[in-house]
Design brief:
26% helix, single chain, SCP domain-containing protein, CRISP-related, CAP_sf, Allrgn_V5/Tpx1_CS
């Protein structure tokens, strides 16, 4: 079942900036769908199929998606994980949920089954704008608390393990600004999802072990 997380970090500095993240654990095998997202079975894993439809992303959203994808590639390469594919179907659902969070000024997991989900929120009373590496770097930095000898789920490291999870093949990326551009919400969805108990040793490799 899903275990929804709680804010892991809140950082204040002289610019009145705040950072929040949520972590998600996956302990299920599911073929349930979210909205019209289609899941197919490949190599004994649930994989979300790209609809190749009209996703209607803005140029700024596309740029952010590509930056986020590149940041994942950079960090995954350190841990023997292959590059990911950007999936428009996942990105559409991630973008819709990011906008929902921004519009309602809330921060919580969607409860979407069949995907992994990393969330990031930052705010600054003077206005804020981020690039695609900001959230991924914040998630990856949890590596400092991860024990590679006894790999398992932890609320303190779940973002990191999902970012570098070897069996994950594709991601969807959403970003939305709220409160007159003083807050930003990032949603990244992963397929197949990571953070399955009992699979950490094979999917989260130490740096330099390739």
């Amino acid at each position: 079942m899903f275990t929804n997380g709680i804010p892991l970090a809140q950082i204040d500095n002289e610019n009145d900036s705040k950072l929040h993240t949520l972590v998600l654990r996956n302990d299920f095998n599911s073929n349930k769908l979210f909205k019209a997202v289609k899941v197919v079975r490949r190599d004994n894993e649930d994989v979300f199929e790209d609809s190749n439809g009209d996703a209607n992303f803005t140029s700024d959203q596309r740029q952010f998606q590509n930056e986020t994808l590149s940041a994942h590639h950079f960090y995954r390469a350190r841990h023997c994980a292959q590059p990911l594919q950007l999936n428009d179907t996942l990105s559409r659902s991630a973008q819709d949920f990011a906008q929902q969070l921004a519009d309602t000024n809330q921060f919580h997991h969607s409860g979407t089954e069949g995907v992994g989900e990393n969330l990031y929120m930052a705010s600054n009373s003077n206005g804020i704008k981020i690039n695609g590496s900001a959230a991924v770097t914040a998630w990856y930095n949890e590596i400092k608390d991860y024990n590679f000898n006894n790999g398992s789920f932890s609320m303190a490291t779940g973002h990191f393990t999902q970012v570098v999870w070897i069996k994950t093949r594709s991601i969807g990326v959403g970003i939305a600004y709220g409160n007159e551009d003083t807050s930003v919400y990032v949603v990244v969805r992963y397929s197949p999802p990571g953070n399955y108990e009992g699979q950490y040793q094979e999917n989260v490799r130490p740096e330099g072990s390739c």
